[in-house]
Amino acid sequence: MATALARGAAAMITMLAVAAAAPASADSPEPLYNLVDAAAQRLQTADQVAANKWLTGGPITDPARVKVVLDAVAKDAESRGVATDYVTQAFTNQINATEAIEYARFAGWKFDPAGAPSAAPDLSASRAVIDGLNHQIVEQFSVQWPLLNSPGCRPALDAAKNIVAGERQFDDLYRTALDVATRSYCPAG
């Protein structure tokens, strides 16, 4: 019973942390804002995931989990008429960027053990948030498909990234991760 309550509390903390990090700017005039913001929120789960893996000794790379994610987003994309190879590449970039943040956190904690986490939310709670964000990202790919495949994609993407990174007060690590996570969004250029 206590374990179930602890897991429930951890799940609630994770969801509240992501929700609190989400600015109320969904009314942005930038057409790719919601897509980029969902990708940014997904990146922000990396700190909680890294903390869990640090404390449990779990590996940063998890090929089985990656396969589950890529299969799920490909299926979601297919149901929405979005090219599955496009979505698979985009999520491969997103996962690589997230793992890079996790590696950076591990490196920082090795340099400064006093800064290492002493508690972390349950990994399943973080994964539930990630799965929800994955769905939002695929939904935005579907909604923005014409723009993503047009010459206007790159300027729209750059504008959305600048706004999101500023609102979320991203440091250089997170800005670089956002660039990596979104680098294949504009296949036309």
Q: What's the pLDDT, averaged over the residues?
A: 88
- What percentage of amino acids are in beta strands? under 5%
| Quaternary status | single chain
What structural class should be given to the helix and strand makeup? mainly alpha
Order of helical and strand elements: HHHHHHHHH
Gyration radius, in Å: 17 Å
The helix tally amounts to: 9
What is the CATH topology?
Chorismate Mutase Domain, subunit A
User: CATH first level: which class?
Assistant: Mainly Alpha
Report, as a whole number of angstroms, the end-to-end distance.
54 Å
Largest sheet: none
**Which CATH architecture would you pick?**
Up-down Bundle
Helix residue percentage: over 70%
- Count of individual domains: 1
Describe the structure in your own words.
The chain is mainly α and 189 residues long. The chain has one domain (2-20, 32-181): Up-down Bundle (Chorismate Mutase Domain, subunit A), CATH 1.20.59.10. It is 74% helix and 0% strand. The protein is built from nine helices and no strands. It is globular. The protein starts with a helix and ends in an 8-residue tail after the last helix.
